[in-house]
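User: Batch of two.

Assistant: Item 1 of 2:
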Amino acid sequence: MRTEEENHYMEQKIDRVVVDTSTGEILNREGDKVRIVRKESIEHLKSVTSMEGRQFYKGYVEELRLILPKLSQAEKSFLMSLSPNIIYYSCLLAFPNGHELNIGNMTQLSGYSKKTVIKLLQSLKEKDIVYRGTNSRNIQWYMNPWLFSKGHTSNKVLKSMFKNYYIQHKGCKWKDLGDF
């Protein structure tokens, strides 16, 4: 049986109301469903260390598991050295201050020679893992959001950049998926 407060939040289309079953106290409110959390879950949540304020990027495990065996050891290493430098939502490879990574920066970050970095970028570009773009001043490099990204959305520009990327776990090209 719901409490009056729970019914009130349901009527307001709240996603979730987390309730401590031992006290009936509402611990959290989000969205349009009521969720009752077991005592064990509450105890677990109390034991978790918050990572708030720290930056994370996402690696899409399902896709990475399928694509990594198709890459050379140097390509894998190079991707890992660049991936922490993905800018939110755009997947632009840049420093936190917004300055785009150039060949020299990639050489320093990866430890590879300039010649090797250029070869790796060309190879990864051919595989639709990175995209080479330009603005009025610089060459810009973007990471394929099906592999690594920051944020929780992708946009139409990224979809047009990587439209021919064959999404391994879906078995089709991105352009064939329709809207995302």
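Item 2 of 2:
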Amino acid sequence: MIDRFINQYEFLGNFYPLPHPTLEHHFQAAKTLDPIKKGEIMAASSPNEAKKLGRTVKLRPDWESIKNKVMEDLVRWKFQDPVLANKLLLTGNEELMEGNSHGDSIWGCVRNGDAWVGENRLGKILMKVRLEVRKKGVAWSQTSL
């Protein structure tokens, strides 16, 4: 099991730097229909700042019903990059869990004694996308990393 998106697995997390703002920037910007607020979030200096700004916006009316699909679409978009797709494939069949200490038991899991508890939505999406990438027959050599 890969239970933390740090070090060699940092690329799995939403804060991983991309050529454009991070996936976190895109996810937070999707929360609102206000183009000015979207622009502010996308221009945020860090994913933490984008997340902070995303907590202050007026949520679009359909946010609760679309947020999982938004995240899935963004993760799928992120792993169209062949280098990142290869890294994802190299996780094999490991269970992917966004273990964290900041209390997010919806998108990830948190420690409760010796056990991890939470919905792990991000981990499940990553495993789904990994399977999709594998089924497409996309494979690159480990030396390309």
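The longest helix spans residues 63-78.
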